[in-house]
Specification:
Low-confidence stretches: none
Radius of gyration: 17 Å
Number of domains: 1
Shape: elongated
Distance between the termini: 55 Å
Mean pLDDT: 85
Largest sheet: none
Strand content: under 5%
Length: 94
């Protein structure tokens, strides 16, 4: 693939993944999978054009994507309860 194709595929998968996460539905976790696919394209792009900073950043983003995939699909958030701010006591600072 050409570098131009790699960067546009990386962009498309990242944008679609972010839209899935923003939709906040029971299928939102698939956005993390799309982020991981995007990371693969960006890593390939970084190698192709010699963009070391982009390469390092995407490697770390890949790690976070894998963690999110594990937590979303592996644990289903049942072991990590979410905190509702409506029930929490919030101290006003102003």
């Amino acid at each position: 693939m050409t570098p131009d194709t790699l960067q546009w595929l990386g962009c498309a998968f990242a944008v679609t993944g972010s839209l899935m996460l923003a939709s906040h539905t029971n299928r939102s976790g698939w956005g993390f999978v799309l982020f991981l696919i995007s990371n693969v394209f960006w890593i390939a792009y970084g190698i192709e054009v010699g963009a070391r900073g982009l390469l390092v950043m995407q490697l770390f983003f890949s790690i976070t994507s894998l963690i999110c995939i594990y937590r979303w699909f592996g644990l289903k958030f049942t072991e990590f309860p979410r905190v509702s701010l409506s029930h929490a006591k919030v101290k006003r600072i102003f």
